[in-house]
Amino acid sequence: MDTSAPTGSSDNLRDKLREGLRGLSPAYFGMAMATGIVSLSAHMQGWEWLATTLFWINASLYGVLWVLLLLRITWHPGAVRTDLLDHLRAPGFFTTVAASGVLGTQCLVVADSLGGAITLWCVALVLWLLLTYTIFTMLVVKTEKPPLDQGINGGWLLAVVATQAVAVLGTLIATRIPQPYRLELNFFALSMWLWGGMLYIWMMSLIFYRYTFFRFSPADLSPPYWINMGAMAISTLAGSQLILNAPHAPFLESLLPFIKGFTVFYWATGSWWIPMLIVLAVWRHGVMRFPLRYDPLYWGAVFPIGMYSACTLRLHEAMALPFLDRIPPVFLVIALCAWALAFTGLVLDLLARVRAPARATRA
């Protein structure tokens, strides 16, 4: 029996995968972040079938993404190290933290799995520690650094999103475990929430300065700029959950005016960004005619929309603001449409990559 053809085909496929992983974006876990938050928002609004379906899709995506990342580390360690030293690509690794936190929240809220949630919270915390002190140390001590306008974008705020994802999952786990661990976990979540807010202020100051005092081209307005809003949305979600947890943590009761004030501050800041980002998107694609095609970074635009839906609903519950209840369903529909478009773009992009070598061979 002749087995040479199947073997050659298998080797060719492996070579394609290996070469394709060389340039894999560190921010690709944004796909799991986006899928997870749309699922959670759907669950919060009673769309159980959608929430459950997206939970299982996300669990599969999360596993596949980890396999791809580990293969890339094995096959292309030099490329991974280069990314960790790159001011624009390094923050993308924080999507592994946020994706772990979001999937852990799905495990707890959608699948009612406390064990799965605790496991993923531990994974997220370990990744947060490793990436925070690895990436920022390497960026500080490297000898050659880019100027501000070439070295920072909205992707830097993924560090804030990662921090708040750990805080959100921590507050939710705290509602399911006994004292004194409940008290300790709430305190840790509060500390992470505060640190995430401080980090946003530092980074957003630099990003806004870059916006207004350096030349800004359509190519500079990459999808991660939506994280400007998404970082505030997840901070709102964490703050709202801390407010809801206050009856079980006396120190939170004493801080309630402060927590409520900052939670509204975060929500208001995130809300301000939405019209601004829409205007800039119209300028980029409508006025400047920048081509609209699939980019893995677009998942970083889907996540903030879904998060805004979820955080607004939780803020409504935490602070008894009934006039906010009309917002979450609208943003859930928008997030679902954006997710469907991004997923369709992913499928078409993969099909194009598979067909391209075949067309080249026939030619």
Write the layout of secondary structure elements.
Blueprint (H helix, E strand, L loop, with lengths): L3 H19 L7 H15 L3 H28 L1 H8 L10 H15 L4 H28 L6 H4 L6 H17 L6 H33 L13 H19 L4 H5 L1 H32 L11 H21 L7 H36 L1
Helix pairs in contact: 2-3, 2-5, 2-13, 2-14, 3-4, 3-5, 5-6, 5-8, 6-8, 8-9, 8-10, 9-10, 10-12, 10-13, 12-13, 13-14
Please give a structural write-up:
The structure is a single chain. The protein is 77% helix and 0% strand. It is built from 14 helices and no strands. Helix 8 packs antiparallel against helix 9, helix 8 packs parallel to helix 10 and helix 10 packs antiparallel against helix 12. It is mainly alpha-helical and 363 residues long. The N terminus is likely disordered. It has one domain: Alpha/alpha barrel (Glycosyltransferase).
What is the CATH class name?
Mainly Alpha
Instruction: Name the average pLDDT.
Output: 91
Give the helix proportion (percent range): over 70%
Number of helices: 14
Largest sheet: number of strands, sense, barrel closure = none
What's the CATH topology label? Glycosyltransferase
What is the domain tally?
A: 1
Provide the CATH superfamily. Voltage-dependent anion channel
Flag low-confidence runs.
1-5
Anisotropy-based shape: globular
The proportion of residues in beta strands is: under 5%
The appropriate CATH architecture is Alpha/alpha barrel
Order of helices and strands: HHHHHHHHHHHHHH
Subcellular location: Cell membrane
Family: Belongs to the tellurite-resistance/dicarboxylate transporter (TDT) family.
Transmembrane segments: 21-43, 49-71, 117-141, 153-173, 193-213, 225-244, 264-284, 296-315, 327-352
Organism: Thauera phenylacetica B4P
